[in-house]
Amino acid sequence: MFSQDAKNHIAACRICFMCRHLCPIGLATGKEAHTPRGRAILAQYSDGSNQGAEIFKESVIDFYQCALCNACADWCETSYEPAKFIREARREAVAQNVLPEKVAPVVDQVLSTGSLFAEKEDIAASADGLPKTADVLLVLGDTARAKTPQIAKAVVSLLKKAGVDFTLLRDEPPVGAMMYDLIGETAEVQATANTFAQAVAETNCKHVVVLDPADAKILLADYPRWDCTLSAEVHTATAYVAQLLKENKLVITKKAADQKVCYHDPCRLVRDLDETEPAREIIAAMGAEMHEIFLNKTNTRCCGGECVAAHSPEITKMTANARLVQAKDTGAETMLCACPGCYDIFSAGRTENSIEIEDIFVLLDRCC
Fold this sequence. Notes:
Blueprint: H1 4-13, H2 24-29, H3 36-46, H4 50-64, H5 71-75, H6 82-96, H7 104-113, H8 123-126, E1 136-139, H9 142-146, H10 149-161, E2 166-167, H11 177-183, H12 187-201, E3 207-210, H13 213-222, E4 233-236, H14 237-246, E5 260-263, H15 267-272, H16 277-286, E6 289-290, H17 306-311, H18 313-328, E7 334-337, H19 340-349, E8 356-359, H20 360-367
Parallel strand pairs: 1-2, 1-3, 3-4, 5-6, 5-7, 7-8
Helix pairs in contact: 1-3, 1-6, 3-4, 3-6, 4-6, 6-11, 10-20, 14-16, 18-19
């Protein structure tokens, strides 16, 4: 059932406890099956026998209740990656048709549309005067268009204020990040990637600016492995906007000096793409008083992930609340996010006593 590469990771992870204190979902639920070691044990006993098939069927939900945040892999001194066998387990669950009842409709939705979300706002239609081809293509992603359109509109506004020659894709096709997380590396995922790459090529752009860190991760790290070549250079939105500020193409006219803020590092941005500073440069440029969360940069604590939230929102509410407590402990008044998915999950997980949540691009747009 598992590839030899995945089996090597299973064999190592099943006997090691060294990262169990880092798993945001394991910490939230207190369930051993929600730790990297627990999932490795389930994977080992799921493989290669009739009894294993029954164990796998019963434990599929535990493989899906993982945010794939890579806190475990980032901590591992021996470079093992539980995400390798977790994605393979998800791929096998789809192939064997043993998806849990609450996961099946989510996977069906992604397989039929490429997206977690049935309805998305057509931001391109409301952005007047954008050309069909341009130097820069802004990729908004599914979450921003479906759940947090105010963030997408803020980034559009910032690029206009900076005089950037950019465009958007009408009916933007999915990048494939959500599908990859839910069903693993399959022909469907690679076909989705090829469709998106073709859409990029048709804009004749030289640069692709990506709002969602999960989309940026798959474009920069996974497309090359699949020999899916983009015709343009990929930038995260945080890095691109920070550069606009450095070059004085984007000018701050109203400082946020009266705001005490902390910043939540998105796991895909800091662990998968090794980006920590651009968002902090944006915050510094706005003049806000910065309070670092104790677990920051590559030690960040994941919000729980949009894919988990789609079928197990009770878990992501717990992971989000735990992170919001850490943010409030800094003494800041507002926690800034640089990921539409993080913002959405933290908003859903807030209580009346939680710290305020703001998107970094929305705040910057008000300052410019």
